[in-house]
Automatic annotation (TrEMBL):
Keywords: Cell membrane, Glycoprotein, Leucine-rich repeat, Membrane, Receptor, Repeat, Signal, Transmembrane, Transmembrane helix. GO terms for cellular component: plasma membrane. Belongs to the RLP family. This is Leucine-rich repeat-containing N-terminal plant-type domain-containing protein. Gene3D superfamilies: Ribonuclease Inhibitor. It comes from Gossypium harknessii.
Amino acid sequence: MDFVAIYLLMLLCSNIFTDSFSKGIPQPSCIKSERQALLKIKQQLKQPNMLADWKAGNEDCCKWVRVFCNTVTGHVTELQLGSSNDTIASSRSKKAGSLKLGGKLSPALLDLKHLSYLDLSNNDFGPTQIPDWFWNLTSQLQYLNISGNQFQGKIPDLLTNQASLVLDLSFNNFTGSLPGISLNVTVLDLSNNVLSGSMSQFLCHKKHQMKLEVLNLEGNHLSGEIPDCWEKWRSLVAIELCNNNFSGGIPSSMGALTSLESLHLRNNHLEGEIPDSLTNCTQLLTLEFAANHLSGEIPPWMGERLSKLIIISFQSNRFHGHVPEQICGLSSLQILDLSHNNLSGNIPSCINNLTAMISRKMSCSKISYNTSKGCFFDNMALMVKGTMLDYSNTLGLIKLVDLSDNNLSGEIPEEMTMLTGLLSLNLSKNHLVGKIPSNIGAIKTLECVDLSENNLSGKIPDSMSELSFLSYLNLSYNNLTGQIPTGTQLQSFSESSFLGTKLYGPPLPTPKTPVPASNIVGGQVDNRKQVDWNFIWMEIGFWCGFLCVACPLLVTNSGDACIVHILTKLKIKHF
């Protein structure tokens, strides 16, 4: 979940507005003691060229690159030292570079008493242990981002901050258990570290309502059951618990999170059914339960109570039963992934009611969620064109139906072709029969079609050759017959797209025309007879001429023997 970029953008706009508003008004110079603190910080850092104008001779530190001051008091309030913040820094100085900082963290940071914003993200401090004094900064900061470094060690309990705090410690090597947090932390991103243990101590036994709105624990080694004590976390808008080792069921107390918009539980060991209590989470936009062991039927109430859903990703579970027709009521749904389950029955013919998949109008490229600190962007992994890809910046543009690897039967409903904004359609590895819908070419936006390993019959519709954006096609192992329609797209695919069918024509190789066996055998026999008889008559002529000369000379018994010998030779040669 990328909430950092939009938060920084808001700050940039705020700074530009403040600078414009205060133009012509004398600005206070920075505080001398704070300038000295900044110089000490620079001394401990590598890549000093990145901070070239941080020098004693340049007295007004409020004009230094990556330093922001209060325009009234002159106190340093923000240090934007992340390597990805060049856009923001360049709005203040053209000297901002793309180099990464290294070296050591200086305790002079504590001398900046009015500092509320500190960004050290995506630098190169090496495998460094965070010093104990550093965590004291959280008592005054409103924003701390040290993500994308190689910081290590344990994270202490963070219980002292008085103001609301955005805390991003992701993509480091922190170990140990989850830290305790104060009720004022509003965003907590601990994703992609090496944290282990249970969530119980972190989550349960809270006396007051917590203000946390975003919780991201993805990509750690957390284990045990997800605790059933979410009642004190009602401000949560997004929960990201993917890629851990959680077991047990989805806790029913999650139904108390009525502000929840995004719930990601992918790639754990969760089992059991989806709890009915989630009917209370009516603000949900994203449900991602993929790659678990969840079972039971897909609840029909999802299509009735969770009417704002944009994404349903339930792939690689053990769901059974039919695809509920109530899902057709989700007019905002853009991604429906129910692949690799045990679903049966027909594909609902009402699927054309998924109106968000009908529009070809470009929607926002990102799916965002509002918090009191601004917006963050959702992200998830999707199987598209036979490859698992991570989507974040373009997730809002994806319109996908994947029902592959189930036990679905019946025909592909003609109504499917009314989803004219669809980018990817995967119905492979089912028991579908009948013909490919004749109007499939109406889905002009299709880039991926996989109908392989079904029992589809008939010809490939001519309209399929009109899919000019199609870059992945698999129709293999069906009962399809006839010639492949000519068209630039279909002829560009490999033979593997049509294996196991009775199709012919490019790109399949042209079979050699077989020569009838009777013609081959007959020709050989005729030729053989003609050659043999010519040879025989030549031999007979030779021997007759020889006898006419030799016989009058032979008057003895030895001459009779010679004639018998010659006739014997003729007889052998004749046969």
